[in-house]
Input
Amino acid sequence: DTAVSQTPKYLVTQMGNDKSIKCEQNLGHDTMYWYKQDSKKFLKIMFSYNNKELIINETVPNRFSPKSPDKAHLNLHINSLELGDSAVYFCASSPKIMTVYPPRVNEQFFGPGTRLTVL
Amino acid sequence: DAKTTQPPSMDCAEGRAANLPCNHSTISGNEYVYWYRQIHSQGPQYIIHGLKNNETNEMASLIITEDRKSSTLILPHATLRDTAVYYCIVREAGNYGQNFVFGPGTRLSVLP
Output
């Protein structure tokens, strides 16, 4: 059973196109995230959602629009793709468990990634 | 999130313990130390985290110094499958993502 899944795994597209990446988690987690890993391998957060509500929106162009139809899904839609958007995008989720020590609230589970190539 | 410093790369012989250091001298009192690893072409995998006590789970042990300014991740019996980039991160519990950055980490190579 895949805990955090993303589709597609690979995405090759032309500059200017609009594309979406889907993410689903079956762990019952409350918080979901999108990360971007660039060519230098730094993994930086883009968005986080808690119970379908946007919590964090790091400095990301508004061409990127996350959508959370329910707690188990966080999709990423990208308009007018640019060459610099080429990267690997990871979805992640984490539980809201503060009652154990150490609290597990930031224990993140990552998907396999989507490699986006913009030509 | 407090900044961390890790060596860029390390080697370890298969079957031996791998000790990965991390400096986090500016860590604040309510920040936890988290360790993740990323095996080539996969998503990061959570390993362990702690506040000030040493922690152990089925994957690894985490040793945090008394002043909390540094920590060591210990893989007691490294295998070839432990070859990966290991990230040390500090963050507050309940921080839902502000300034979350992984990298560059320590590239651990387990040698046969």
Summary: The beta strands of chain B are 9-13, 18-23, 31-38, 45-50, 55-56, 61-64, 70-75, 84-92, 101-102, 106-111. The mean pLDDT of chain B is 91. The interface with chain A takes residues 32, 34, 36, 38, 41-46, 49-51, 55, 85, 87, 91, 93-104 of chain B (CB under 8 Å).
